[in-house]
Amino acid sequence: MARNRKSQSAAIRFGPALKAIVLCLVLGGFGIGYVWQKNQIWELGQQIKQRELKLEKLKRENAGLVKNLNTMRSPPQLERKIKELNLGLVPPHPSQVWRLLEPLPEESGLELESRDLVLENRSPRPGLAP
Question: CB of 116 within 8 A of CB of 110?
Fold first, then answer.
């Protein structure tokens, strides 16, 4: 005997519709996830670009500051500044200079070399030299 629609259960009638809804939700979720990931990738790319530009700017500033420091440390610049500020500084007298030899550590395996260090003689009272 043939069955008609009225005698079918409700689960059989709504099954295909429920499957279609679940399939649409899954595909929509995948689509939203894909767009979200692409947006995150774009935002991270922008952050990286900004940080690279900032790094380059800081490198340029650092190079300028190093150049400025080297200029300020140069002997002619120091002498000019001493004269400008009237500090009255003069080079030390040769008897006030002590030369010390500094050997390299023995465990380095290199040939022993020594470097000269120039130290200013600072006596406890002015005018007294050793």
Answer: no
Residue 112 CB partners (closer than 8 Å, separation 6+):
103, 104, 106
Tell me the residue range of the domain where 17 lies.
Answer: 12-73
Asked whether residue 68 is domain-assigned, the answer is yes
User: What is the DSSP code string of 66-97?
Assistant: HHHHHHHHSHHHHHHHHHHHT----PPPGGGE
Whether pTM > 0.70 for this model: the answer is: no
Q: Is residue 123 within 8 Å of 130, Cβ to Cβ?
A: yes
Residue 128's beta-bridge partner residues? none
C-alpha separations of 42 from 34, 38, 55, 56, 125 in Å: 12, 6, 20, 21, 70
Mean pLDDT of the chain: 82
Instruction: Report whether 99 contacts 121 (CB < 8 A).
Output: no
